[in-house]
Amino acid sequence: MIKVVCWDKKIEISGHAYFESYGKDIVCASVSSIVFTTLNGILNINDKAIQYINDDILEIFILSNDEITTKLIENMIVLLKELERQYPKNLKISKGE
After folding, report:
1. For residue range 22-50, what is the model confidence (pLDDT) as tens digits?
2. Under DSSP, is residue 57 helix (H, G, I), strand (E, B) or coil?
3. Which of 6, 8, 18, 68 is deepest in the core (most CB within 10 A)?
4. Structural domains of the chain ordered from first start
């Protein structure tokens, strides 16, 4: 299962969806597309708005509260929640505590 944990200034994404084998998993591909399109969009507008580390866990650090960054992050979460609704066994989104 892919786990997305959201805090105010940080988002962590980890795991594998196990919908299909590596390289054929549409849930993993969808999560990657949603997340990296969002990150690239933000960085193209303001390269100081976020930082991320893509290791075993993708950690996204939100450094700016500007309107565009906030809206793009919110949109990313909405898209991931819709994917979670469609594939609840493969994707879980939660709030960090």
Report:
1. 788 999 999 999 999 999 999 999 999 99
2. coil
3. 6
4. 2-92 (3.30.70.1490)
